[in-house]
Each structure stands twice: as structure tokens, then as C-alpha cells.
Amino acid sequence: MPNPDQQISNQRSTSRIVSISGIGIELIRKRIKHIHISVYPPDGRVRVAAPQRIDDEAIRLAVVQRLPWIRKHQERLRNAPRQPERQMLSGESHFVWGERYRLDVSRTGRPSVELKGGILWLTAPEGTDVESRYRILDRWYGEQIEAVLSPLLEKWQPVIGERVESVTIRRMKTRWGSCTPTKRSIRLNLELATRTPRCLEYVLVHELVHLLERSHNARFYALMDRFLPTWRAIRDELNQAPLSHAVWGPSSTGEVD
Ligand SMILES: [Zn+2]
User: Which helix (H) or strand (E) holds 46?
Assistant: First the structure.
């Protein structure tokens, strides 16, 4: 006989708007273990994702506790120069390994990306459209991850005692990474190149641990605690900071799958 909690947690996520301390909040119930609070650009919209079984009062308390953090982020977003869409124009902020750079697209020529003195120089032939510029930048982000991937794999595969067959780096809308244990293949979101290097390391370790344990069960988390004791703080860093400029959908905080 299925237990009632299981039935509830098998439902798809539900969403409603609640007001906590005068802030309108989108509250989403889904199959997760912890409460995640996110503040989204451009206007500081707040979304709370909570496990199905936590009651409203506990969520209210968690939000109240984080009010200073929420207000700080809303304030920062309100004061930030608006970047309404993916324009790839000079002056926009773009992140590389957690550092903010100012985009400059004034150079024309063979496609290339270069960092110099806080500037992200994106060179493209005259008349290159926004999407093509994004493809140039995405390809470069992928190369940045590739460049550090080998040392990371050399470091972690012996520790975990498993080897991967392939690592694919691509843009994903809702996942920071995923693993197919049967194929020993891992996929990493190239957006990780915008985050601090430890975020990439955490996601990679998480996916490698899936070669030992497929499910997010107690054994999985015990292995994570053993291999990377600081993983919870890094996961929170990944989930709490909204994406820098890209327009992502409702699941944009990203999950590590
Ligand atoms: Zn996972």
C-alpha cells in the first residue's frame, strides 16, 4: 500500500503566491529536501521552493530569518543597471569564474574572447547578431571548463574510485549537471564557467558520486560528506545567487541532478 506522503511527493510541483512580512512570494512545493530561497532579476521577485512536507509556519520562519538577505539582494537588483534582454552590448556585466567583467564588443574580426583588465572582449565579424555572439561566448565558456576539467578529474577519480567515460559540456536550462551511471557519462552546464571554480568542482564531485550511488539517498549524502565536507555551502551558493544576465525560466536556480 503506498503511504500518503509518497503519494503527495509523487505529485508534480505546485505553486502559489503568499505574502510574508509584506513581500509577495511565489511558493513552490516540490520533491526537494531543503528550503531554497531565490531572488530574481530584474525586479527582485522572490521564489521559495520548499519540500512538500514542511508546514507553512516553518516556511514563514525560514523566510523571516532570511529577510535581511532577501532585502539586500532586492536592493542590489533595483540599483543595478537594467539589462532587459540578452543584448550582448558593450557595458553589460558578464561573469567568468565568479568575477564580474564588463563586455566590450567594439572590436570586429575573427571570433574570439579575451579577458583583459576587467573587460571581456568579444570580437566578432561586423554585423554579427546577438545569438551568434552568445554562441561565441558559450563556446569560450565551454573551453574554460575543458581547460580545468582534466586536472579536476585526475584529482577526484582516484579519491572516489570511479572513472567516467565521457564528460559533455553544454548549456542546460534547469540543471547544473547530470550523470548517466550506466554509460559512465556526465553532463555539465557550461554556465558553471560563470560561477566560482568551487561550484564546478562541487557539481563534478556530485556527478562522480552518482557512479557509486545513483539515488539521492542517505548513502549518497554520506559519500558527499566524506569526499567534500563543504558541499552544502557550495550548493547554497549555486542555488541562492541568481544568474547574472541570462533570462531563465521558473526553474532557473538550477538543480544538481
Ligand atoms: Zn544528483
Answer: strand 45-51
